[in-house]
Design goal:
heterodimer, A: about 160 residues, alpha+beta, 6 helices, about 65% helix, B: about 110 residues, mainly alpha, 3 helices, about 0% strand, elongated
Amino acid sequence: MRILLTLALWMIAWLLWSGLYKPLLITLGVISCLLVLVLTRRMGNAGQEYFSLRLTFKLVPFWTWLFGELVKANLQVTRIILSPSLPISPTVVRIDALEEEIGGQALLANSITLTPGTVTIDDHDARLFVHCLTQEGADEVREGEMNRRIARLNDR
Amino acid sequence: MAVTLDVLSWILLLLGGGFVLVGGIGVIRMPDLYTRMHAASLTDTLGTLCILGGIGLQAGLTLASIKLAAIAIFLLLTGPTATYALANAALMSGVMPRDAELPEDLDP
């Protein structure tokens, strides 16, 4: 029953996105929906328990903050790339995620990677290794502003 | 009004193109895989966002711009995941960051 409901929702989403009602496209839509169903089954419905509306609303201020950081980091990396001396000092730092839930840790790792100048290269048991383009970037990661903000997302 | 929107959208498109160009230059200039990934993430983030924003301004408040917003969100979610997969695969197969300061417990 739940499967049929999910399939119906996906099919509606497909029709809304495409806006074309030709037999070929509808057939492709049905095939896509079935394929997604098979794939999510294979993944053991991974991530289902991490999706909650409460968290989604809290993500909005976090994303706003993250966007500001993104712009700053983009300009920094742009300056580094365009300076003739290429002033980089690659550093790998280890940080421990304050967030306990695995979904939040993934969010932390992805947010770090999304910001230019820092890439998470290993994330295991709340232990993250982050490759930073410069020493200053590494200090900022160690200081842990992002880590704290994500840990606070789950507080009520 | 239409002219203002046009100018704004062109500024965004040019900025986006600029970031993509700088990202490309960075990929060539950087010394190893990990530092190159930092340069490539310029293309991923502000490059993409500015270009999508510029196209969105051209489209106005239509279904097309909602789709563009959805594309932006999907890219921002999947981009870092793919980057992580690449970086972690490199680390697991023993590629160490070159000329970098490493913590002593980094053990792939």
